[in-house]
Design goal:
By secondary structure, the chain is an alpha/beta fold. It has one domain: Alpha-Beta Complex (Inosine-uridine Nucleoside N-ribohydrolase, Chain A), CATH 3.90.245. Helices cover 35% and strands 16% of the residues. The protein is built from twelve helices and ten strands. An eight-stranded mixed beta sheet has the order 3-2-1-4-5-6-10-7, with helices on both faces. Strands 8-9 form a two-stranded antiparallel ribbon. Helix 1 runs antiparallel to helix 10. It starts with 8 loop residues before the first strand and ends with a helix. The structure holds beta-D-ribofuranose and calcium ion. The site of calcium ion has 10 residues, from helix 1.
């Protein structure tokens, strides 16, 4: 496990649980290097009512969230019609495990206001960790622009420079609210993007899931139960033998960034394309800075023309062994 000599990273986890969001919550709640300031919930994998219920269930099951505010946020995207991912996460948004009544309840504040309050009231900057559509974060930035300078960085799961997973071009979290993603990617704060390019290499193999399950504590068993359903739906929809464990990559990066290789890229969100709506256009080769054929295409681009230059560290590779050691170590912390 990474050394605990450093100060823990203050984070707000904005999520739409979701099986992989749930794993990320369980990791963030227990690891000493993470100081979880709030869990804020957004509609995404399922309707807000369901993602909120799931967040309360998972936080309650962690037994580590009694003092952490959990708040419900945006029930709809900023502009587009709502899309959900029932095919992957089931009717409840977290099908598989059976939960009792959650011990924890909701904070009375709207998630957008909680994000704003926590950032403005904090002496130190806070890292935002969105693992769902970016509606809550974008709305907070629009409602109170002064929060931007209090954001240390944004470590998000979303996008892809290769293939999408909800359309051939787009990844779910960005596709579910592309306009919100545009606000976030142009906010000017450092961004770490965990896209499908890397999360598809962070697979929950049967061997790794069995290893975590063998820890035998209730949270490890919950992890294994969630992975059982997730593996089935990912196999049905995409044919994967082992499902990609998307959202936990963000928490793993915070615990040990050396687990990932990243590359600085300009990331723009496609807001106009009929086939490419919600795509993260990632300038992998830095083409926008180069002279040569095609350069004029980027000039005089009207309202969406933006300064070039990287705005995100995009993950391109993961050390599989290290990643799974981080996950195992997190669940081993639940005694
Ligand atoms: C993302 O979409 C959701 O289904 C997952 O929770 C993850 O955040 C992957 O595209
Ligand atoms: Ca998610």
């Amino acid at each position: 496990m990474a050394t605990t000599a450093k100060k823990p990273v203050k984070i707000i986890h904005d999520c739409d649980p979701g099986h992989d969001d749930a794993v990320a919550i369980l990791m963030a709640a227990v690891h000493p290097m993470i100081d979880l300031k709030a869990v804020t919930v957004v509609a995404g994998n399922q309707t807000l009512e369901k993602t909120v219920r799931n967040a309360l269930n998972v936080c309650s099951a962690s037994k580590r969230c009694a003092d952490i505010p959990i708040a419900a946020g945006m029930s709809r995207p900023m502009v587009r019609e709502q899309v959900i991912a029932g095919d992957i996460h089931g009717e409840s948004g977290l099908d598989g495990p059976v939960f009792g009544e959650p011990e924890l309840g909701l904070d009375t504040r709207h998630a957008v206001d909680l994000i704003i309050d926590l950032l403005l009231d904090s002496d130190d900057p806070i890292t935002l960790v969105p693992t769902g559509p970016l509606t809550n974060i974008a709305m907070a930035i629009r409602k109170e622009p002064e929060i931007v300078e209090k954001i240390e960085r944004i470590v998000l799961m979303g996008g892809a420079y290769q293939h999408g997973n909800v359309t051939p071009s787009a990844e779910f979290n960005i596709y579910a609210d592309p306009e919100a993603a545009h606000v976030v990617f142009t906010c000017g704060r450092p961004i770490v993007m965990m896209g499908l390019d890397v999360t598809r290499k962070a697979n929950a193999t049967a061997e790794m899931v069995a290893k975590v399950r063998s820890l035998g504590n209730p949270q490890a068993i919950l992890f294994a139960e969630m992975m059982e359903f997730f593996a089935k739906s990912q196999k049905e929809v995409f044919g994967w033998d082992a499902p990609p464990l998307h959202d936990p990559t963000c928490i793993a990066w915070l615990i040990d960034p050396t687990c990932f290789t990243t590359k600085p890229m300009r990331v723009e969100i496609e807001l106009r394309g009929s086939l490419t709506y919600g795509r993260t256009s990632c300038d992998y080769f830095g083409l926008e800075h180069q002279e040569g054929p095609g350069k004029e295409l980027y000039e005089g681009g009207g309202a969406l023309a933006r300064p070039t230059g990287p705005n995100a560290e995009v993950a391109v590779d993961v050390d599989f062994e290290k990643f799974w050691k981080i996950i195992y170590d997190c669940f081993a912390l639940y005694k």
